[in-house]
């Protein structure tokens, strides 16, 4: 199973001879991401990122719903953080 995570485009570098890249923020962490598959994405847009590639755009309301669910998962009692292990 693959997991795509929403992130906020905070900067976009236009493509020259290479693919378009930008900086995408995930919960305060910023990463360089390929934006070639979402040429319409601009600063302030949310994108779904898998393996360093933005594969689609997502509206802000849906992005917030995903963030809420991820936060709930992070608050599970007994989560050790090691190899997806749950105690209890």
Descriptive overview:
There is one protein chain. The protein is α+β, with helices and mostly antiparallel strands. It has a domain at 5-58: SH3 type barrels. The protein has one helix at residues 60-74; strands spanning 5-13, 21-26, 29-34, 46-50, 53-58. Mean pLDDT is 82; it is low at 75-88.
Structure characteristics:
single chain, 88 residues, alpha+beta, SH3 type barrels, 5-stranded antiparallel sheet, elongated, disordered C terminus
Layout of strands and helices, then pairs:
Elements: E1 5-13, E2 21-26, E3 29-34, E4 46-50, E5 53-58, H1 60-74
Antiparallel strand pairs: 1-2, 1-4, 2-3, 4-5
Low-confidence segments, ≥5 residues, pLDDT <50?
75-88
The CATH class of the domain at 5-58 turns out to be Mainly Beta
Approximate shape = elongated
Largest sheet, order of strands side by side?
3-2-1-4-5
The average pLDDT is 82
CATH-derived topology of the domain at 5-58: SH3 type barrels
Structural class: alpha+beta
Helix count from the secondary structure assignment: 1
Estimated radius of gyration = 15 Å
Query: In sequence order, what are the helices and strands, one letter per element?
Result: EEEEEH
Strand content: 35-45%
Biggest beta-sheet profile = 5 strands, antiparallel
**Mind telling me which CATH architecture of the domain at 5-58 this is?**
Roll
Helix share of residues? 10-25%
- How many individual β-strands? 5
Give the termini separation: 25 Å
